Amino acid sequence: xxxxxxxxxxxxxxxxxxxxxxxxxxxxxxxxxxxxxxxxxxxxxxxxxxxxxxxxxxxxxxxxxxxxxxxxxxxxxxxxxxxxxxxxxxxxxxxxxxxxxxxxxxxxxxxxxxxxxxxxxxxxxxxxxxxxxxxxxxxxxxxxxxxxxxxxxxxxxxxxxxxxxxxxxxxxxxxxxxxxxxxxxxxxxxxxxxxxxxxxxxxxxxxxxxxxxxxxxxxxxxxxxxxxxxxxxxxxxxxxxxxxxxxxxxxxx
Length: 253
Fold this sequence. Notes:
Elements lengths: L3 H19 L8 E3 L6 E3 H17 L4 E4 L12 E9 L1 H5 L6 E8 L2 E9 L4 E6 L4 E3 L2 E2 L11 E4 L9 H12 L4 E3 L4 H9 L5 E7 L1 H13 L3 E3 L12 E6 L7
Parallel strand pairs: 3-4, 10-11, 10-12
Antiparallel strand pairs: 1-2, 4-5, 5-6, 6-7, 7-8, 8-9, 12-14, 13-14
């Protein structure tokens, strides 16, 4: 059973991750390239993930841990699974842009049941428990009901998948011509929180990995929105897929 004590301990762990990010020593930071264009990992990504793995598996000892910075990812079909992005927005972190988050999605039998996303630079902790709503620092949040003509569109460029760039920008141009404006933050987890909080109305990216959206998808849905793949099919939490999150509008994109 997912008790209040368990969720509070998860929240404490993600705040501790934020402390590591805020206290990063830039003089000792190391940066490595991973497979794919503009795909980086820092010593702090690894440090945050190691800390979270230890703490989260102490909270739920029988759970599976799936972290972005692991070479081999475990299966998430049965029981509890943590899907974690230690620093979502690593390029922002490297450039000291102050727009990076830590994302923890807790799944049960492959479906999200608890989510926490923390932006340490703003002190914003977004949480959601399945069936109980979404919250920002403990206060309820809800998606926007603005029409597309009054909407802010958030998007990701799928930089690790350059072959998808043209399709993504074609969709963006289509939406920009019908919407209020567009924004690009560089952290999909944060983008999803912006939709959940009603600060933006729609977010899409042509391909993301489960740690980018496992937590955010639950936060958006518990805030009254919807998250699917771009073609309207359900998200996959076992492999990468496209993501489309929106508020209370069913206008065709």
